[in-house]
Amino acid sequence: MQAEIKAESKKPETKRKYNVIIIGAGPAGYTAAIYTSRAKRDTLIISGNLPGGQLMLTTEVENFPGFAQSILGPDLMTAMRQQAERMGTTIIDDEVVNVDFKHRPFKILTYSEEYEADAVIIATGASPRKIGAKGEQEFSARGVSYCATCDGPFFKNQDLIVAGGGDSAMEEAIFLTKFANKVHVVHRRDKLSASKIMQDRAFENIKIKFHWNRVIDEIKGEQKVKQITLRDTKNGQTETLDVGGLFVAIGHEPNTKLFKDQIELDEVGYIVLKNHTRTSVDGVFAAGDVHDHRYRQAITAAAFGCMAAIDVDRYLSEHSS
Ligand code: NAP
Prior knowledge:
The chain contains 6 helices and 19 strands. By secondary structure, it is α/β, with parallel strands linked by helices. It folds into 2 domains: 15-127 and 252-318, FAD/NAD(P)-binding domain, CATH 3.50.50; 144-248, FAD/NAD(P)-binding domain (3-Layer(bba) Sandwich). Helix 1 packs parallel to helix 2, helix 1 (27-38) packs parallel to helix 6 (298-318) and helix 4 packs parallel to helix 5. NADP nicotinamide-adenine-dinucleotide phosphate is lined by residues 129, 131, 163-169, 171, 188-189, 193, 195, 198, 215, 250-251, 293.
Protein backbone atom coordinates (compact mmCIF):
# COMPACT_ATOMS: atom_id res chain seq x y z
CA MET A 1 0.00 0.00 0.00
CA GLN A 2 1.32 3.45 -0.84
CA ALA A 3 2.04 5.79 2.04
CA GLU A 4 0.10 9.01 2.07
CA ILE A 5 2.25 11.62 0.39
CA LYS A 6 1.96 15.33 1.01
CA ALA A 7 4.05 17.96 -0.77
CA GLU A 8 6.26 20.21 1.35
CA SER A 9 5.57 23.85 0.73
CA LYS A 10 7.56 25.87 3.26
CA LYS A 11 10.69 27.61 1.96
CA PRO A 12 13.80 26.04 3.50
CA GLU A 13 16.65 27.99 5.06
CA THR A 14 19.66 28.05 2.78
CA LYS A 15 23.35 28.78 3.16
CA ARG A 16 25.76 30.23 0.65
CA LYS A 17 28.06 27.24 0.33
CA TYR A 18 27.44 23.45 0.08
CA ASN A 19 29.61 20.38 -0.41
CA VAL A 20 27.36 19.31 -3.29
CA ILE A 21 24.85 21.20 -5.39
CA ILE A 22 22.55 19.13 -7.58
CA ILE A 23 20.91 20.97 -10.44
CA GLY A 24 17.61 19.33 -11.36
CA ALA A 25 15.04 17.36 -9.39
CA GLY A 26 13.97 14.33 -11.39
CA PRO A 27 14.74 10.72 -10.42
CA ALA A 28 18.48 11.29 -11.06
CA GLY A 29 18.71 14.44 -8.92
CA TYR A 30 16.66 13.12 -6.00
CA THR A 31 18.48 9.78 -5.93
CA ALA A 32 21.87 11.53 -6.03
CA ALA A 33 20.75 13.71 -3.12
CA ILE A 34 19.57 10.73 -1.07
CA TYR A 35 23.03 9.19 -1.44
CA THR A 36 25.16 12.33 -0.90
CA SER A 37 23.10 13.48 2.10
CA ARG A 38 23.20 10.02 3.62
CA ALA A 39 27.00 10.13 3.18
CA LYS A 40 26.93 13.34 5.29
CA ARG A 41 27.73 15.62 2.37
CA ASP A 42 25.96 18.89 2.80
CA THR A 43 23.63 18.89 -0.24
CA LEU A 44 21.44 21.46 -1.96
CA ILE A 45 19.07 20.63 -4.83
CA ILE A 46 18.02 23.49 -7.06
CA SER A 47 14.97 21.98 -8.65
CA GLY A 48 14.36 24.15 -11.73
CA ASN A 49 11.00 25.08 -13.14
CA LEU A 50 9.51 21.55 -13.14
CA PRO A 51 10.35 20.00 -9.74
CA GLY A 52 10.01 16.25 -10.21
CA GLY A 53 10.87 16.40 -13.92
CA GLN A 54 9.10 14.54 -16.71
CA LEU A 55 7.37 12.14 -14.31
CA MET A 56 5.24 15.02 -13.07
CA LEU A 57 3.59 14.95 -16.50
CA THR A 58 2.78 11.25 -16.53
CA THR A 59 0.00 9.32 -14.84
CA GLU A 60 0.57 5.75 -13.66
CA VAL A 61 4.08 4.32 -13.49
CA GLU A 62 3.87 0.54 -13.67
CA ASN A 63 7.52 -0.33 -14.30
CA PHE A 64 9.34 1.32 -11.39
CA PRO A 65 10.27 -1.61 -9.15
CA GLY A 66 8.85 -1.64 -5.65
CA PHE A 67 5.28 -0.61 -6.39
CA ALA A 68 3.29 -3.78 -6.92
CA GLN A 69 0.09 -1.83 -7.58
CA SER A 70 1.86 0.90 -9.64
CA ILE A 71 2.24 4.50 -8.52
CA LEU A 72 1.32 7.86 -10.02
CA GLY A 73 4.33 9.72 -11.47
CA PRO A 74 3.83 12.84 -9.30
CA ASP A 75 3.42 10.67 -6.16
CA LEU A 76 6.64 8.83 -6.93
CA MET A 77 8.51 12.10 -7.31
CA THR A 78 7.01 13.56 -4.13
CA ALA A 79 8.09 10.44 -2.25
CA MET A 80 11.64 10.74 -3.62
CA ARG A 81 11.72 14.40 -2.64
CA GLN A 82 10.58 13.62 0.90
CA GLN A 83 13.13 10.83 1.15
CA ALA A 84 15.92 13.23 0.12
CA GLU A 85 14.68 15.79 2.66
CA ARG A 86 14.56 13.15 5.38
CA MET A 87 18.23 12.39 4.64
CA GLY A 88 19.03 16.07 5.16
CA THR A 89 18.96 17.53 1.63
CA THR A 90 17.93 21.17 1.29
CA ILE A 91 15.69 21.67 -1.75
CA ILE A 92 14.81 24.99 -3.28
CA ASP A 93 12.35 25.45 -6.12
CA ASP A 94 14.34 28.04 -7.97
CA GLU A 95 15.84 28.15 -11.44
CA VAL A 96 19.53 28.29 -12.24
CA VAL A 97 20.30 31.15 -14.61
CA ASN A 98 24.10 30.93 -14.78
CA VAL A 99 27.00 28.75 -13.65
CA ASP A 100 30.74 29.28 -13.32
CA PHE A 101 32.65 25.99 -13.40
CA LYS A 102 35.93 27.72 -14.30
CA HIS A 103 36.75 28.82 -10.76
CA ARG A 104 36.60 27.03 -7.41
CA PRO A 105 34.43 26.77 -5.48
CA PHE A 106 31.95 26.45 -8.36
CA LYS A 107 29.36 29.23 -8.55
CA ILE A 108 25.70 28.74 -9.32
CA LEU A 109 23.44 31.69 -9.78
CA THR A 110 19.67 31.38 -9.46
CA TYR A 111 16.99 34.02 -9.93
CA SER A 112 17.27 34.94 -6.26
CA GLU A 113 20.67 33.83 -4.88
CA GLU A 114 24.26 32.90 -5.68
CA TYR A 115 25.52 29.60 -4.24
CA GLU A 116 28.93 27.92 -4.09
CA ALA A 117 29.75 24.22 -4.21
CA ASP A 118 32.80 21.95 -3.98
CA ALA A 119 31.12 19.52 -6.38
CA VAL A 120 28.16 19.72 -8.73
CA ILE A 121 25.87 17.06 -10.17
CA ILE A 122 23.99 18.10 -13.29
CA ALA A 123 20.68 16.25 -13.48
CA THR A 124 18.64 18.60 -15.64
CA GLY A 125 17.25 15.85 -17.89
CA ALA A 126 15.98 16.16 -21.43
CA SER A 127 12.69 17.31 -22.81
CA PRO A 128 10.80 15.50 -25.54
CA ARG A 129 10.30 17.63 -28.61
CA LYS A 130 6.72 18.80 -28.97
CA ILE A 131 4.88 18.35 -32.24
CA GLY A 132 3.24 21.79 -32.00
CA ALA A 133 -0.27 20.68 -33.01
CA LYS A 134 -3.51 22.15 -31.74
CA GLY A 135 -4.68 20.18 -28.68
CA GLU A 136 -1.21 18.75 -27.85
CA GLN A 137 -0.94 20.52 -24.51
CA GLU A 138 -4.62 19.99 -23.61
CA PHE A 139 -4.46 16.21 -24.14
CA SER A 140 -0.98 15.68 -22.69
CA ALA A 141 -1.22 12.60 -20.38
CA ARG A 142 -4.81 12.17 -21.61
CA GLY A 143 -3.91 10.30 -24.77
CA VAL A 144 -0.88 12.27 -25.90
CA SER A 145 2.31 10.61 -24.68
CA TYR A 146 6.03 10.99 -25.25
CA CYS A 147 7.03 7.53 -24.00
CA ALA A 148 5.63 4.23 -25.32
CA THR A 149 7.52 2.17 -22.74
CA CYS A 150 5.83 4.20 -19.99
CA ASP A 151 2.30 4.48 -21.36
CA GLY A 152 1.84 1.84 -24.09
CA PRO A 153 0.21 -0.81 -21.88
CA PHE A 154 -2.64 1.62 -21.11
CA PHE A 155 -3.74 1.54 -24.75
CA LYS A 156 -4.73 -2.12 -25.21
CA ASN A 157 -6.75 -2.90 -28.36
CA GLN A 158 -6.86 0.71 -29.50
CA ASP A 159 -5.81 2.36 -32.74
CA LEU A 160 -2.85 4.68 -32.16
CA ILE A 161 -0.68 7.17 -34.00
CA VAL A 162 3.10 7.45 -33.71
CA ALA A 163 4.53 10.70 -35.07
CA GLY A 164 8.11 10.66 -36.39
CA GLY A 165 10.36 8.83 -38.81
CA GLY A 166 13.52 8.12 -36.79
CA ASP A 167 14.68 5.12 -34.76
CA SER A 168 12.63 6.16 -31.73
CA ALA A 169 9.44 6.36 -33.76
CA MET A 170 10.04 2.90 -35.26
CA GLU A 171 10.93 1.43 -31.90
CA GLU A 172 7.83 2.94 -30.29
CA ALA A 173 5.56 1.86 -33.16
CA ILE A 174 6.84 -1.74 -33.02
CA PHE A 175 6.54 -1.81 -29.23
CA LEU A 176 3.00 -0.45 -29.36
CA THR A 177 1.84 -3.21 -31.73
CA LYS A 178 2.03 -5.54 -28.70
CA PHE A 179 -0.96 -3.72 -27.24
CA ALA A 180 -2.64 -1.78 -30.01
CA ASN A 181 -5.04 -2.90 -32.65
CA LYS A 182 -3.31 -0.83 -35.26
CA VAL A 183 -0.47 1.73 -35.25
CA HIS A 184 -0.44 4.57 -37.78
CA VAL A 185 3.02 6.04 -38.32
CA VAL A 186 2.71 9.64 -39.45
CA HIS A 187 5.86 11.12 -40.97
CA ARG A 188 6.41 14.51 -42.56
CA ARG A 189 8.57 13.14 -45.40
CA ASP A 190 8.24 10.33 -47.95
CA LYS A 191 11.01 8.27 -46.38
CA LEU A 192 12.22 7.40 -42.92
CA SER A 193 15.44 8.53 -41.27
CA ALA A 194 15.50 5.41 -39.04
CA SER A 195 18.27 2.81 -39.43
CA LYS A 196 17.70 0.15 -42.10
CA ILE A 197 17.13 -2.63 -39.58
CA MET A 198 14.47 -0.63 -37.72
CA GLN A 199 12.80 0.34 -41.00
CA ASP A 200 12.70 -3.29 -42.12
CA ARG A 201 11.18 -4.41 -38.83
CA ALA A 202 8.51 -1.72 -39.02
CA PHE A 203 7.69 -2.43 -42.69
CA GLU A 204 7.33 -6.14 -41.92
CA ASN A 205 4.88 -5.53 -39.08
CA ILE A 206 1.35 -5.99 -40.40
CA LYS A 207 -0.16 -3.88 -37.62
CA ILE A 208 1.75 -0.76 -38.76
CA LYS A 209 0.41 1.52 -41.48
CA PHE A 210 2.50 4.41 -42.85
CA HIS A 211 1.14 7.84 -43.73
CA TRP A 212 3.77 9.71 -45.74
CA ASN A 213 4.11 13.48 -46.14
CA ARG A 214 1.66 14.08 -43.33
CA VAL A 215 1.81 16.18 -40.19
CA ILE A 216 -0.42 16.19 -37.13
CA ASP A 217 -2.80 19.10 -37.51
CA GLU A 218 -5.21 18.81 -34.59
CA ILE A 219 -5.92 16.52 -31.65
CA LYS A 220 -9.55 16.27 -30.58
CA GLY A 221 -11.48 14.47 -27.87
CA GLU A 222 -13.35 14.93 -24.63
CA GLN A 223 -11.80 13.42 -21.50
CA LYS A 224 -9.29 11.63 -23.73
CA VAL A 225 -8.07 11.72 -27.32
CA LYS A 226 -10.68 10.48 -29.80
CA GLN A 227 -9.69 11.85 -33.19
CA ILE A 228 -6.60 13.22 -34.85
CA THR A 229 -6.51 15.25 -38.02
CA LEU A 230 -3.57 14.82 -40.39
CA ARG A 231 -2.55 17.34 -43.00
CA ASP A 232 -0.90 16.44 -46.30
CA THR A 233 2.27 18.56 -46.61
CA LYS A 234 2.05 18.52 -50.43
CA ASN A 235 -1.53 19.57 -51.11
CA GLY A 236 -2.81 20.73 -47.70
CA GLN A 237 -5.70 18.24 -47.66
CA THR A 238 -6.76 16.91 -44.30
CA GLU A 239 -8.12 13.57 -43.09
CA THR A 240 -9.25 12.52 -39.62
CA LEU A 241 -8.43 9.21 -37.94
CA ASP A 242 -10.36 7.76 -34.99
CA VAL A 243 -7.59 6.86 -32.54
CA GLY A 244 -7.19 6.56 -28.78
CA GLY A 245 -3.72 8.00 -28.53
CA LEU A 246 -0.79 9.84 -30.06
CA PHE A 247 2.80 8.95 -29.29
CA VAL A 248 5.15 11.77 -30.23
CA ALA A 249 8.61 10.40 -31.05
CA ILE A 250 10.40 13.21 -32.83
CA GLY A 251 13.49 13.35 -30.61
CA HIS A 252 14.55 14.82 -27.31
CA GLU A 253 16.45 17.95 -26.40
CA PRO A 254 18.86 17.75 -23.48
CA ASN A 255 18.49 20.63 -21.02
CA THR A 256 22.07 21.81 -21.32
CA LYS A 257 21.93 25.37 -22.68
CA LEU A 258 23.30 26.67 -19.36
CA PHE A 259 26.42 24.54 -19.60
CA LYS A 260 27.33 25.07 -23.23
CA ASP A 261 30.47 27.16 -22.58
CA GLN A 262 31.42 25.36 -19.38
CA ILE A 263 31.63 21.61 -20.09
CA GLU A 264 31.96 19.38 -23.12
CA LEU A 265 28.70 18.54 -24.90
CA ASP A 266 28.26 16.29 -27.94
CA GLU A 267 27.08 17.58 -31.31
CA VAL A 268 23.42 17.47 -30.28
CA GLY A 269 23.94 18.91 -26.81
CA TYR A 270 24.14 15.86 -24.51
CA ILE A 271 26.81 16.00 -21.79
CA VAL A 272 29.87 13.91 -22.62
CA LEU A 273 30.95 11.71 -19.73
CA LYS A 274 34.68 11.12 -19.32
CA ASN A 275 35.19 8.61 -16.58
CA HIS A 276 32.03 7.01 -15.22
CA THR A 277 29.86 10.02 -14.26
CA ARG A 278 32.57 12.70 -14.52
CA THR A 279 32.23 15.50 -17.07
CA SER A 280 35.09 17.37 -18.75
CA VAL A 281 35.41 19.55 -15.61
CA ASP A 282 36.91 17.88 -12.56
CA GLY A 283 34.33 18.10 -9.76
CA VAL A 284 31.33 18.42 -12.08
CA PHE A 285 29.34 15.23 -12.59
CA ALA A 286 26.23 14.38 -14.61
CA ALA A 287 23.39 11.91 -14.14
CA GLY A 288 20.30 10.85 -16.07
CA ASP A 289 18.75 11.88 -19.36
CA VAL A 290 21.04 14.90 -19.63
CA HIS A 291 23.77 12.52 -20.85
CA ASP A 292 21.81 9.31 -21.51
CA HIS A 293 19.84 9.32 -24.76
CA ARG A 294 19.68 5.55 -24.93
CA TYR A 295 17.64 4.31 -21.98
CA ARG A 296 15.76 7.40 -20.72
CA GLN A 297 13.85 5.57 -17.98
CA ALA A 298 13.10 6.74 -14.45
CA ILE A 299 14.89 3.72 -13.05
CA THR A 300 18.01 4.24 -15.16
CA ALA A 301 18.08 7.95 -14.31
CA ALA A 302 17.82 7.04 -10.62
CA ALA A 303 20.67 4.55 -11.05
CA PHE A 304 22.85 7.18 -12.73
CA GLY A 305 22.02 9.53 -9.81
CA CYS A 306 23.28 6.91 -7.37
CA MET A 307 26.47 6.42 -9.40
CA ALA A 308 27.16 10.17 -9.61
CA ALA A 309 26.65 10.52 -5.84
CA ILE A 310 29.14 7.74 -5.10
CA ASP A 311 31.65 9.34 -7.50
CA VAL A 312 31.10 12.75 -5.85
CA ASP A 313 31.65 11.30 -2.40
CA ARG A 314 34.95 9.77 -3.52
CA TYR A 315 35.96 13.00 -5.26
CA LEU A 316 35.27 15.04 -2.12
CA SER A 317 37.26 12.58 0.03
CA GLU A 318 40.21 12.82 -2.37
CA HIS A 319 40.05 16.63 -2.37
CA SER A 320 39.40 17.33 1.30
CA SER A 321 42.16 19.38 2.90
P1 NAP B 1 15.88 11.59 -34.57
O1 NAP B 1 16.79 10.55 -35.11
O2 NAP B 1 16.36 12.99 -34.47
O3 NAP B 1 14.54 11.53 -35.46
C1 NAP B 1 13.54 12.46 -35.27
C2 NAP B 1 12.43 12.17 -36.27
O4 NAP B 1 11.36 13.05 -35.97
C3 NAP B 1 12.83 12.39 -37.70
O5 NAP B 1 12.14 11.49 -38.51
C4 NAP B 1 12.33 13.82 -37.96
O6 NAP B 1 11.93 14.02 -39.29
C5 NAP B 1 11.10 13.86 -37.12
N1 NAP B 1 10.81 15.21 -36.65
C6 NAP B 1 11.65 16.08 -36.00
N2 NAP B 1 10.99 17.22 -35.70
C7 NAP B 1 9.74 17.08 -36.18
C8 NAP B 1 8.59 17.90 -36.18
N3 NAP B 1 8.60 19.13 -35.60
N4 NAP B 1 7.45 17.44 -36.75
C9 NAP B 1 7.41 16.21 -37.31
N5 NAP B 1 8.47 15.38 -37.34
C10 NAP B 1 9.62 15.80 -36.80
O7 NAP B 1 15.39 11.23 -33.09
P2 NAP B 1 15.15 9.79 -32.45
O8 NAP B 1 14.42 8.91 -33.37
O9 NAP B 1 14.60 10.06 -31.07
O10 NAP B 1 16.62 9.21 -32.25
C11 NAP B 1 17.61 9.92 -31.48
C12 NAP B 1 18.93 9.11 -31.49
O11 NAP B 1 18.76 7.90 -30.74
C13 NAP B 1 19.31 8.70 -32.90
O12 NAP B 1 20.71 8.73 -32.99
C14 NAP B 1 18.81 7.29 -33.01
O13 NAP B 1 19.51 6.51 -33.95
C15 NAP B 1 19.02 6.78 -31.57
N6 NAP B 1 18.04 5.71 -31.28
C16 NAP B 1 18.38 4.42 -31.62
C17 NAP B 1 17.48 3.39 -31.41
C18 NAP B 1 17.84 2.01 -31.80
O14 NAP B 1 18.85 1.81 -32.43
N7 NAP B 1 17.06 1.02 -31.47
C19 NAP B 1 16.23 3.64 -30.84
C20 NAP B 1 15.91 4.95 -30.52
C21 NAP B 1 16.82 5.98 -30.76
P3 NAP B 1 12.93 14.56 -40.42
O15 NAP B 1 13.67 13.37 -40.91
O16 NAP B 1 11.99 15.16 -41.39
O17 NAP B 1 13.81 15.60 -39.75
